[in-house]
Write a structure and sequence with these properties.
single chain; about 90 residues; mainly alpha; 5 helices; about 0% strand
Length: about 90
């Protein structure tokens, strides 16, 4: 759960700054799709269970997009367009 989105939603700091929400990721995954926003409206009264459910849902969505991007990048580099001139602008 990105901290900026958690703050926007009114999620208490002790939930989104907890080690259960902080993860180590590579710079590519952290940089790609890092600014994910939900359609939810801000509210008060978030429980730990509600926060974890939202965190897990967002992770699943981001994971799918990141995996698709990684597949595209692998195919691009395996195709070696720089060797055939296809990658030129």
């Amino acid at each position: 759960m990105p901290a900026a989105e958690a703050r926007r939603l009114g999620i208490p700091r002790e939930l989104y700054e907890d080690y259960a929400n902080l993860v180590l990721v590579c710079s590519g995954c952290n940089g790609f799709d890092n600014r994910h926003w939900t359609d939810l409206e801000p509210r008060t009264g978030w429980t730990q269970e509600e926060f974890f459910a939202l965190r897990d849902e967002l992770f699943a969505q981001r994971f799918a997009r990141i995996a698709a991007r990684q597949e595209w990048e692998m195919a691009f580099f395996e195709g070696r367009p720089w060797e055939t001139g296809q990658g030129e602008a």
